[in-house]
Amino acid sequence: MSLPNSGNPSPMETMAKERVNIPFDIRKMGVILHGSEESLALKERFMLEMSRDPVMQLRDVHDLSKDELRERTMEKIAEMRHYVKTEDSKTFARRCQTVGLSDAGFQTRFGVSTGLFLGAIRNGSTKEQWDYWVNKGVLQMPERIIGCFGMTELEHGSNVAGLLTTATLDKKTDEFIIHTPNLGATKWWIGGAAQSATHCSVFAQLMVDGKRYGTKTFIVPIRDPKTFKTLPGILIGDIGRKMGRDGVDNGYLQFSYVRVPRDYMMMKYTQVSKSGEVTDTAAPQMAYGALISGRVGMVTDSAVIAKKGLTIAIRYGIVRRQFSAGSDDIETQILDYPIHQRRLMPLMAQAIAIGFASMTLQKKYEDVMESRSHLGPSQLDPANHAAEIKELHVMAAGLKAFSTWACLDMLEKSRQTCGGHGYSAYSTFPQLISDFAVQCTWEGDNTVLMLQSGRALVSYLEDVKKGKNVPDGVAYLKTASSSSGSKSDGSLSLKDIERGFEKVTSGAVEDAYAEYSSFLKKGQNKEKALESCSNLRFVAARLHSITWLFKNFVTALNKTPAGPERKVLEQVCRLYGLWQVELEAAQFLSSGYFGKEHLAKIQTEINDLCLAMRKCAIPLTDAFFNTDFILNSPLGRYDGDVYNAYFDTVRRANPAGPHPYFDRVIKPLLEAPPVNLKGKL
Amino acid sequence: MSLPNSGNPSPMETMAKERVNIPFDIRKMGVILHGSEESLALKERFMLEMSRDPVMQLRDVHDLSKDELRERTMEKIAEMRHYVKTEDSKTFARRCQTVGLSDAGFQTRFGVSTGLFLGAIRNGSTKEQWDYWVNKGVLQMPERIIGCFGMTELEHGSNVAGLLTTATLDKKTDEFIIHTPNLGATKWWIGGAAQSATHCSVFAQLMVDGKRYGTKTFIVPIRDPKTFKTLPGILIGDIGRKMGRDGVDNGYLQFSYVRVPRDYMMMKYTQVSKSGEVTDTAAPQMAYGALISGRVGMVTDSAVIAKKGLTIAIRYGIVRRQFSAGSDDIETQILDYPIHQRRLMPLMAQAIAIGFASMTLQKKYEDVMESRSHLGPSQLDPANHAAEIKELHVMAAGLKAFSTWACLDMLEKSRQTCGGHGYSAYSTFPQLISDFAVQCTWEGDNTVLMLQSGRALVSYLEDVKKGKNVPDGVAYLKTASSSSGSKSDGSLSLKDIERGFEKVTSGAVEDAYAEYSSFLKKGQNKEKALESCSNLRFVAARLHSITWLFKNFVTALNKTPAGPERKVLEQVCRLYGLWQVELEAAQFLSSGYFGKEHLAKIQTEINDLCLAMRKCAIPLTDAFFNTDFILNSPLGRYDGDVYNAYFDTVRRANPAGPHPYFDRVIKPLLEAPPVNLKGKL
């Protein structure tokens, strides 16, 4: 009796074959992809420590309720107290990021305290205020103080200037009165508010002598640290279940005439004296730093989470077999189907591209912040730093939007390539997707950020036209727009692709600028005209992000020592570029850079590159260095033993027990008397 | 003290304004979008009944655990017993679909019994077998018998021919022995298996006298209906948590030499005699019907679920205000931003297009099935029906894939337009998305289905080239390919768009065919050559789906009586067409149908149409006729009172209570002694 597919080798044999004759050194590749040997070694160390720490276990995580997840997350945060005190801040940040690879809720909940709340004090306080809060214990968080970040309100997210919470100076008592004037002003989505925080950094309208001075930050104690009871005048509620990140205890806060000392306003940039004098030391855009930091982190998240999802999908695609070619008794590995390669290989290239982008952006951010950190508030001259900050801001905004959208898309596509099993909670994809989805919204809605980036591009082009200098990252607006007759040399080389992207992007910026100008001429004011050209601005910003990502990939390649790793990465880079050309083909055709005949060739080249990548797909996922522990998905098993692991996981997570509702609901149905229904049909 | 945005009118005032001077009759529009007055009236009746039925309540649904959801879902199924006996099958199907609008888990779990399991018997049984199972009570489900559908296995999803479960004839006892030979053959994902079913329709390899006869269906009793204990030789396990649809008790089954009477094999198409003689009455593709039915239903699901999500997003977009234009104290409604219109209005057009497509497809399906239902198995001549079935199959496969992808995309985009609040479970988007996501995978992975559609297109083109007849739906392959010089007349009229789509699609089919032929010439066999051209096949299938959807929309318009409703729908149709042209712009540029100058005009026209649609966006969502009960999202409130409803919902769902882990986890942190960490920074 012969059954179908009886010739299939076992999944483990199938996987083992993929690691024979690897064309490059996996560790060397890992070092390149992680930026340095040190960075890779740290990640490995953290993953090892986590896998041995009972609090960090992941096995049961897909079946925890919201309440259980929250408690587990707080336990993890408590577990960090040791490292807060013993590790330098860079190492510690890296540790938190690695924990975040398997628990996005942890990353958010702890990040709200140590990034946003602490950052609000660090960036906003005077020297005396800083010392005061350090003495209170903010550097020791989660010990002694736990902070939350009270920015968004029920009716106001992106529009910080429109927030309605008020902080009114009471000169008699030398206090601010924090107040929520109506339902819409309720602080909403505040991570850590529902169950963790003792203090909140509240964004509120500064009101002095009946005059409004705009949104400032106030530190407000919200709970008695001994009893955890809310303090007088403070209502805290629980926001409840979310799409993902249920380990975060998001809450809402309403303040009813809550008093805090005048000194609890962060006074680095704006000072309010006892007598009600309001003075500004530096321009408010100097406070951009904290927001940019979050966005830089999200580009990194996009890269590492996409690589995690792709590792699972690609390993599963190697092991999974479906349909046999002709009369053969061996079924085909699904990653051997050209269409499956098409589904996954360009995404792998994109994840790697975003990984290089995140390293460059992080470095740039650190350089800019470093150059500012030596300066006191009075030395922060806006004129000196505005251009630098603007460039960084624009870069981070566009890349945050592009990368988080790309990552969410990659996760969902990766999930779909795992077929039905990708829908199982135990595949870990549902968690990855639902946890990640919020990144497209928070710290700047992606569409809004893209438009900001597009707005900057339009203004840079205006500068170019006026003969002014523009940052290196957009210098191509000068050259590419002046060589409007240029065409591809037909080589489809990296240089050829790069020139093409510069050309189409500068063309798209020109189009947006032209539409903007035409609306100005029709009498619209600047803001209105910018809105009217928003679709083209959006397109320009998207193209600019791709151009930047691609050029950055090429730059990273040029810094990589010659060798087999670089050779493979050149193919990855080329695949990324050509695939993006195909997606944006209309732009290339319109501009005349590529013609129809080029596109046909590009289509074939992409197919060929996908096949080439498929041949080293497993070594490449190995070079992402995600252990089975951190992947937490039987489908992504390193050794390929997918089905046994999956079956065991499902079985352990769902032990047999008595039927919970047979007697009450099902039995009466089965015992119902027969009814003749033949006539019904 | 003036606060920002103090001039904002209330959300309810804002919403009320949108319903003044509506340019069409909402009920008339509703009838058009629902196909008939009767269809709309039924939906209204069911929604009303549900809102008054305690078992159907939705208020608490976002906080139910998997176990609670499952019990609730079974209660809903039990609630259906009354209607099973009193309603005709079409009305009852409509009722289940309406329940499914708010509970996809119900739709699946009950559908598995009444659609798939019962369908397997209905389509596969002889007259005697049918009478036998009807006497057993299958028409009375969920009473007396509850069935599940045992097709997929752990290692085999799409590949039904590759299933490994065996059904071996034992002539001595006149029984089949059902057996699971190994782990990979475990029946997996079987909805209703874990907690509901008494019987399973098992797909297994028919084995007689050591010879394999392919995959057939066997009805296997799996539980004692009195005790609900599993029967001897049967292991049932629970698959546990999923991305969504946790109301469905998916399970796995392993059979160890389980015996069923020979008559429990469904013998309409293949018969096995007592002595082991195997005969075929009709070709197995005649069994396609059941699969097609599921796919037709998914096109309908895509339309109605997308309309539900868009109703929420559009209503929220009307009420939500953010940023004020200039010095104005009134903030702008976000749907008044051109980019927000761009995000939502084309999706609304797409949802309406898919709605019309679903009605046409359903009608076509019913017509074909109707024409076959009078025939006994021996009369089902493959030659007579193959072409008709093939056409329907290809149409359903492509539209299922296109529509479910489009719907998932529309839901995620709609969610994102609601900003942070779209991430709240109470917005209902997380549930909509996670429940819907599986539609891209089940009953045919979308990529596989698209390629099947592409394969058919290539073969239809081959027929055209050979001068053979092809179905009406692809007749354009004849005309469009012969007029390869044709260009747009520049009018951008519906006719112009239609001609353009026919041209680019036939061009894409030609490209796929050319690549296919070139691989044949290089010596590949037919299957291999089809794989090699899969990317172009995929593109052709996607374009064909769009072409079909657009042409069908135009046809539906032509059947709509003249009047203001039709006028608005013409704009919707034009927006849909032009937006799709923009998305597929590279195809149009390559083919020369549209030039660069057309695309610029199209970009502007889309902006204008988005603005026109925005003006009647609320009346259009009203014409989707989803009550607040069925929407179950405070963000989508009919009256616009979004924030009060949202706050109330969150508050009711998350009542205050004692802190669950303060003493154990947080208190020790807050009481930790101070440590001097200043040196660390």
TrEMBL record, chains A, B:
Start and end residues of each Acyl-CoA oxidase C-alpha1 domain: 288-458
UniProt entry keywords in alphabetical sequence: FAD, Fatty acid metabolism, Flavoprotein, Lipid metabolism, Oxidoreductase, Peroxisome
Cofactor or coenzyme needed: FAD
Record InterPro entries: ACOX_C_alpha1, Acyl-CoA_ox_N, Acyl-CoA_Oxase/DH_mid-dom, Acyl-CoA_Oxase/DH_mid-dom_sf, Acyl-CoA_oxidase, Acyl-CoA_oxidase_C, AcylCo_DH-like_C, AcylCoA_DH/ox_N_sf
Binding-site list for FAD: T152, G191
Recorded catalytic activity of this chain's protein: a 2,3-saturated acyl-CoA + O2 = a (2E)-enoyl-CoA + H2O2
PANTHER family: ACYL-COENZYME A OXIDASE-LIKE PROTEIN (PTHR10909:SF352), ELECTRON TRANSPORT OXIDOREDUCTASE (PTHR10909)
Similarity-based family: Belongs to the acyl-CoA oxidase family.
Protein name (Swiss-Prot/TrEMBL): Acyl-coenzyme A oxidase
Organism (species): Filobasidium floriforme
